[in-house]
Amino acid sequence: MTDTTTLDTESGAAFVKEVERLGSRLTRVRDAVGKLIFGQQDVVDETLVTVLAGGHALLIGVPGLAKTRLVETLGVVLGLADKRIQCTPDLMPADILGSEVLEEDADGRRSFRFIEGPVFAQLLMADEINRASPRTQSALLQAMQEHTVSVGGHTYRLPAPFHVLATQNPLEQEGTYPLPEAQLDRFLLQVSVGYPDLDAERTMLLATTGSEDVKPEPVLTAEELIQAQRLLRRIPVGESVVEAILAIVRSGRPDGSDVGSVRRHVAWGPGPRASQALMLAVRARAVLDGRLAPSVDDVLALAHPVLRHRMALNFAARAEGVTLDSVIDQLCAPHR
Fold it and tell me: What is the pLDDT of residues 219-232, one digit of tens each?
């Protein structure tokens, strides 16, 4: 007769070992990235959380803060085939997705052949995404949500894993096109990239202007990353964490919110995808920190990058100088 209790215990112990091994590997990933990216630990962690959770990230920061270097470094360290798109107003959807060309063989028969665009990568960097026209931006919608593209009546599956890491400059707004809400919602996290502190900038200055050029080294493979993403979804989440996620997300919606500033200042709030994003992200953050289960602190730490691009202030809020970060702080306050 089978002892199910023993089997459950053994299964649980094996699962714990798997998570601990993954945590150890992720520590090596952070160390490898840290050799090239200085003073941006929160940015690195939030970007790793995004990739581990199987999502896409929008990195917003002024020029010169190593956003491009971070994406290139992650591609090598995580063992992903990466490609880059430099977004400009004249960029066309076919420049991203690919196109069909008419070919003639030796017998004179003509047929169409599909030439893949740069979107056929495991890690796609869309540099200055808001410089692309709305038509071109929308070419990424299907790819980001369904991991497929449709060209000429045919559907093509993208490589696995597939992640988009897009960058955006918050200063130069001439010649830019704001991302539509539907596309913003496709990004799991919006990562704010700030200036490094004095010590980090000193270290970066000395490390990057010398004769030695440090190169990133691979730590994971694409298949190992896929396995990690699958393992992540099996990590248990406590009821208190689930309730905190639901309370924060639902109270960010103007209709029915019990937070006065939300009813007064928020034009539209986060949808259910925000709850899903938080659930996945808190698991990833816990494993990245070497823990076996997420806590409410993880929810509070990730509320801003998950919600700030899924909410919009009304005119009255902007006139009064209210910021989205201050509104999200109020949503989180009861759970601190």
Answer: 999 999 999 999 99
Chain-centre distance of CA 66, in angstroms? 16
Checking DSSP bridges between strand 163-168 and strand 148-151, what pairing results, if any?
unpaired
**Distance (Å, rounded) from C-alpha 15 to C-alpha 126?**
36
Instruction: Report the CATH fold assignment for 238-336.
Output: Helicase, Ruva Protein; domain 3 (1.10.8)
**pLDDT, tens digit (0-9, with 9 covering 90-100), for 285-301:** 999 998 989 999 999 99
Give how far the C-alpha of residue 125 lies from the chain's centroid of Cα atoms, to the nearest Å.
11
CATH topology of domain 1-212+220-234: Rossmann fold (3.40.50)
The CA–CA distances, whole Å, from 106 to 31, 103, 109, 114 equal: 54, 10, 7, 19
Q: In Å, how far are 63, 168, 174, 189 from 60, measured between CA atoms?
A: 9, 5, 16, 11
Contact at 8 Å (CB) between 282 and 235?
A: no
Give CA–CA dist 27/21, Å, rounded: 10
> pTM of this prediction?
0.89
Nearest to 156 by CA among 206, 96, 196: 96
